[in-house]
Amino acid sequence: MFRFLKSMKYALDGIFYALKTERNVQIWLGVMFITFLIGFLLKISEFEFMIISIWMCGIGTSEYLNTAIEKLADRVTTEHDDQIKNVKDISAGATFICSTGAFLTCMYIFIPKILERFFH
Ligand SMILES: Nc1ncnc2c1ncn2[C@@H]1O[C@H](COP(=O)(O)OP(=O)(O)OP(=O)(O)O)[C@@H](O)[C@H]1O
Question: Where does the chain bind substrate (predicted)?
Answer without folding.
Answer: 3, 63
